[in-house]
């Protein structure tokens, strides 16, 4: 695309998918648990009956998917979390992490309960390095060359899960959903990343609004036996 061209998605009303992670001062979740919970939360919303057909969230989801697909993660604790939990949405609970996803809202039209929440302060760590991905789980492989805050990485994990969902056929989708969306977030080995990024698997390329350069490949998504080998079909990039 030349500098004189415009992306038609930019000419449409812009929406954002809000996610809120619960981070209590004395009990923050592990980073990988939070990333995996965010990815599953996005999948829960995409497959919720309220987001499909004539559901109450369906038009907002359609409008969001019709423009640039943005996700923003904010943090909450205590009363903030309780107020956020009272809004329509879905809470995904991991081993310790709690992430609530809400139907898309206009870019400048966040509910006041969410608009007050901070984007910064989502830095999380893993007490121990995560082990191998569970057998049969989808894997969202992160680029080892990029440093991101946990909030930014949670949004990227959500992007990766969404691209993977779009890439699967109906049978694979049904089986994954019935199993509870088993997935793992792992950072790829540096020597393996170039092959993953060039494999034809779904790849997330960030628009560069925050933290990292535009066009950066952040996540490659694979699904065992379906989307897990070089040459497997990709769903296109997600900004």
TrEMBL record:
SUPFAM superfamilies: Peptidyl-tRNA hydrolase II. It catalyses: an N-acyl-L-alpha-aminoacyl-tRNA + H2O = an N-acyl-L-amino acid + a tRNA + H(+). Its EC number is 3.1.1.29. The keyword Nuclease does not apply. InterPro entries: Pep_tRNA_hydro_II_dom_sf (IPR023476), PTH2 (IPR002833). GO terms for molecular function: hydrolase activity. Pfam families: PTH2. This is peptidyl-tRNA hydrolase. It comes from Streptomyces omiyaensis. The lineage of its organism: Bacteria, Bacillati, Actinomycetota, Actinomycetes, Kitasatosporales.
